[in-house]
Amino acid sequence: MIATSTDCLSVEELNRLLDGQLSSNEFDSASKHVDQCEQCQSRIPEKWDALSPIANADSEEDSVLAESACQFAVAQLMTAGAKVAHTSADLPIDQIGPYEILGQLGQGGMGMVCLARHNRLKRQCAIKLLPPHRVMEPGWLDRFDREMTTIAALEHPGIVRATDAGTHSDWHYLVMEYLDGMDVGKIAHRLGSLPVADACEIARQSAVALMHVHETGLIHRDVKPSNLMLTRDGTVKLLDLGLVLAGDDPLATDDRLTTVGHLMGTLPAMSPEQLLDSRKVQPVSDIYSLGATLYRLISGRWPQANEGGLAARVLAITSESNRSTPLPLSRLESSVKSELESFVGQMMHRQPDQRPSGSIVAERLATWSGEANLKALLKRAESTPASDAPITPSLPLATNPASPPPGNGKHTWTAWLGPLGWFAAAILLATVVIQIKTDKGLVTVTTDGKDTQVAVEKNVQDSTEETVSPSTEKSLTADIESPDSEKIYLGENLDYWLGVFRREQQIERIGQAMRAVELLSRNTPKREEAARITLELANEYGTQIIDDTPDQNGGGFGGQSSPNQRFMGYLTQTFDNYLPTPGLRPLGETLADGNERAQITAILLLNHFVTGVHVNAVYEGRLETAKASFATEALTPEGRVTIETLLKQIGIASGELKPLAADATAKDRYAMTPAREAVSSRETAWVTAVRIIEMSGPKISPPSWIADYVQEQVDEAVADYEHREIDPETEQTKWDYSDPNAPYGFSSGGFGGGPQMITTPTDPDWLLSRELFLSAIEMRREGRLDLPIQFAAETLAHPRFNWYSMDGSSLNDLVQALATIDPEAPSLIAFHLDRSFQEMDRQYQASQNAEWLHPLTYFGQRLKEGLASVYTTHVEQPEQAHDRLERLVKSLPNLSMYQQSTEGNKDIWNAMLNDLKQRFESE
């Protein structure tokens, strides 16, 4: 029987604890006791010494590793006999581009940083390397590319400077200035607490650099000591811009704590808003992290200490309580003045709007940094060997080892939440998954606010660098070497979570099961079954509308999204991880055999895969993965059969959705009824199939349904066009200015005021999408369908036609193609463009309301790509056209949002005016 929380553990029990041979309850009780007991800590067996290189590493994150649960997990890795692919001295490559690799400076999750020298210039530099295998993993190349572009865009003496970037032998690399110095994390570890003036000067310089980041519209997101470099001349440089983002977070699924994945950021330094939802970060989130960093540098410990375990620390940061208030700095460092103590507290204020800006931080910290000597600080740190560094315990030890911890060893870390209790814990934490990398493997700590699980996975040998296998995670409740051990998520195995799908109706619980099943099924024989069972739920909950924040249960106009929308939020966050293998097979089966809801869902998921979309953002790395997947499949006969089968299944889904789509009415255009979802899904299916064929290459022939769909859509559009309403005054197509949202109970522009006047024509029913229009033109050139030239010309010149350039397509080429069909095409395009200008001029002259000129801004891209010359060359009465266009252009500054929407088109309009003037003057 294991010792209770009030009894010390025997040596045998300590060994069983370290070997992971305790049950979940026994482990929890024993680990909590060791946290509080100096006597037990002093009697830990010698194998514990294997942990010291990690637990005492030169890193400010050692406070997280000091948690008993994490330490035991790391000890498992250290004693499991796992082999390392290569030592830090080994280099995977000795030459990259024009740079000779001289040695390794550091290594992290994204790759390796090496010291290098330019072959010709003989100048030393630092090179960050992204290995080839990382390029194919979703998100890594995006983050690496983002760091390259970010550093290149941020030119500031307080930010590391980029000098070059490129690709060599499938290695992506970023060349940066070589900084001769030491990162502040190592300095703080070697020296313990820093002199107040030095700490304030480091933070002051960092604030100045952050001001430049924020002025550029970016947020650093990971401000901490190890991301600050102190150089020999006393300059502090901001490092690691791989998480710098603007606006919404494109790494939302990997970044948010409510999702299985890496914690992007450093727990002790993260602001409450970043910890709860990383998409809510703002510039003052960096200020919080800088305040926490300053607190750490002055006191030698993080603001939220580690008492009570990891879950308690998360709650301490994210909740309002006495526990969440850090100890006053003056109690930890007597030389801290009350004004500085108060200001650091203001930097770490729980409410973002109460924190100072970067400029104020820089100004105020100058008050306390006058006596700083950073050059001397660096020399002192360099002269202090790492082995002699003072170890500041991040986990204070109990003064009375015999006294039981609060609650007699039971889960009590939410007791201080007061009347909120477990409900508050669940709301604040949801499901938190934090992964901690070590040089031997990965430690995963999972909590749902009620229970905390720790799991480990060993590294697998890799030819290029130490990597973490995503497939060998094992619970500490089983022997790590045992072939019969299972992976556990929140205390349950894969079969349990698969069963949740069959018996659970609560969407949040289903979402939790999706995450658990995806994580636990990795590299197991049940991976495809997991994907299939996950997707089966779409038969009940599938829809096109996605709540991207399902854990928050919000997002709709009523303040709450539907269960179906939240289901889609969870599904789109997790199912991407099954693609391309084994997820494509269940997707194909669902396309062919699922009901309408499931087919709509499968089409959406497949489209996200082929377009690189993940949680409402496009990732180049995901897009390249899709391209490589289909291109590789197309190389073999078996692979081509797989692709052709998938294309056939897409066609089956499109065909089976056709009856439902036929029920769509005109009003469904702006409300996602089931019929409208079917219409949209059928077009998405067609677009997706076309992209798969493009990615697969010439050996894949398009199935007949693809051309049939184009013919069907063109026939319907032309029929609508021929029955369009004609304006009796102009004898041309009557433009509809009705409010498309009015039938649904709200009017356009109704945020904070009354409805706005509609000054842009509503999309006509006959307007084709860009993709369908281009396909129709090509099929018309090949003689495979009938396309009236009047219809094509008016489509191309309509204000609402959604034109954008991609795939090398050009409007010049399109106009030439139409001209080969009918030589009158350019004149017809010019006529309909002029009709648009006349309509805007007429409405503006009658009302003197510049908002009627807004449709003119829609033409900018099309004019630049060729329609400008078509108009000026072929429009009738060029002098009148010139005077009309001149009136419109001169009135544009009166248009609201003028600077943002129209300034860039001024050159093209001036060029058109000049061409028109030359034409009528020469006639």
UniProtKB/TrEMBL annotation:
PROSITE patterns for the chain: PROTEIN_KINASE_ATP (PS00107), PROTEIN_KINASE_DOM (PS50011), PROTEIN_KINASE_ST (PS00108)
GO molecular function: ATP binding; protein serine/threonine kinase activity
Residues involved in ATP binding: 128
Region Disordered, annotated ranges: 385-408, 459-479
CDD domains (UniProt xref): STKc_PknB_like (cd14014)
InterPro entries in UniProt: Kinase-like_dom_sf, Prot_kinase_dom, Protein_kinase_ATP_BS, Ser/Thr_kinase_AS
SMART domains, per database record: S_TKc
Keyword Kinase recorded: yes
Compositionally biased residues, Polar residues: 466-475
Superkingdom, natural source: Bacteria
Keyword Kinase: yes
Keyword annotations of the record: ATP-binding, Kinase, Nucleotide-binding, Serine/threonine-protein kinase, Transferase
Protein name (database record): Serine/threonine protein kinase
Organism this protein belongs to: Rhodopirellula bahusiensis
